Amino acid sequence: MAENKRQNAGGKAPVATPNMGPSNTTSLENALVGVIGARIRLQTVLTSQPTMEGTLFTACPLTNLVAIAVPTSPANPPTHHILPISSIQNFTLISAPPGPGSFASPPNTTPALNSVPIAALRARADAAVARLKEAASRKNKTVGKEAQDLFDGLCRTLPTRWDGNNIVVNENVIISPPYRGEDCKAGNGVPAQALNRVRKVVDNERKRFADRERKVVVPAIPAIPAVHNGPRKGG
After folding, report:
1. What is the 3-state secondary structure (H, E, C) of 9-36?
2. pLDDT in tens, 114-143
């Protein structure tokens, strides 16, 4: 029976366990996860670094990797080493990890969800609709391009709206077709200065239209060369 026990024991691969006492039965991976943030001393099978001492930065059982921050000097930041857990023979706990609230054991909290500002979104939507309606009200489909261009020019400097095919400026001057300076009429009690200002703007806009038309270059049609159908020399 003793021989069978020795054979069974010889058939099992040795398991690396942390150096935490003879009664410890925790696997090396779980033990390392439990001391993240602690200061430890590792005994490895690596010939280049058989011993490492520093702060255990992380331990991942999924990738079987650990990262340990080994201090170099007080003036320089520590050097982080990443090595496989399989290369660790055992480790010694030098100082306990930080308490709750540290990076080693972050609190299990769910971020608060921000409330949706329904009123602000509705106000933005209403403002966008109002702008679209205002832009549509400035377009008159029953007038020509020159009348629409005159309306758009007046809108740049004066409050302007359509009333049928008439242009109303400042709510006190009406411009009737064909929209010339002399077609501007003011209501009772409107100062002559206000009427003259609208007439001046209309005249300037129409002058600008005329200048624009004169600048349009009409491509010249090349002359067709004359064809001579007379008898050719030599026959």
Report:
1. HHHCCCCCCCCCCCCCCCCHHHHHHHCC
2. 787 899 999 999 999 999 998 888 999 999
Q: How many CB atoms lie within 10 A of CB 56?
A: 23
Burial class (CB in 10 A: 0-12, 13-18, 19+), 160: buried
Q: Cα–Cα distance between 135 and 129 in angstroms, integer?
A: 10
Rounded alpha-carbon distances, angstroms, from residue 212 to 17, 75, 147, 220 = 92, 75, 15, 19
| pTM reported for the whole predicted model | 0.41
Question: How far from 117 is each of 114, 120, 121, 122, 123, CA to CA, in Å?
Answer: 9, 5, 6, 9, 10
Helical axes 145-155 vs 192-214, angle rounded to 10°: 130
CA distance 197 to 203: 10
Q: Exposure of 59 by Cβ count < 10 A (0-12 exposed, 13-18 middle, 19+ buried)?
A: buried
For residue 162, give the nearest of 180, 143, 145 by alpha carbon.
143
Going by C-alpha positions, the residue among 70, 55, 9, 58 that lies closest to residue 29 is 58
